[in-house]
Specification:
elongated, about 80% helix, mainly alpha, about 110 residues
Length: about 110
């Protein structure tokens, strides 16, 4: 089977991946925007305002990044099942390639 991890193990790896992407995004944002702002001829008051605006933009962008990553991961099983149903007509043995946790989730949802 392609992926025989338990759902809790998969949740761990999804959470780790999202956290690493968020950390990478944050580091690039902080270093990149600090380099940009420090090279501008600004007064201390302007610098303070720019830093505040930078922080607000970071929060808004990071909300989008975290939402996008989690939404993408959350919809992966649904997309996989939808594609598997389409492929079932072409390949009747598609369940053999389906991850074990996905087939158990499908059985639980139908009450079997």
């Amino acid at each position: 089977m392609l992926n025989e991890e338990k759902p809790t193990e998969q949740a761990f790896w999804v959470a780790l991946k999202v956290a690493l992407y968020y950390g990478l995004f944050g580091a690039v944002w902080i270093i990149g925007t600090d380099l940009l702002v420090t090279n501008l001829p600004l007064s201390p008051g302007q610098m303070q305002r720019i830093q505040s605006i930078k922080g607000i933009i970071f929060v808004l962008l990071s909300l989008f990044v975290v939402f996008f990553l989690l939404e993408r991961k959350a919809n992966r099983p649904r997309r996989y099942r939808r594609n598997s149903r389409r492929n079932n007509e072409k390949d009747p043995d598609y369940l053999r390639t389906c991850p074990e946790w996905l087939t158990s989730v499908k059985m639980t949802e139908t009450g079997q």
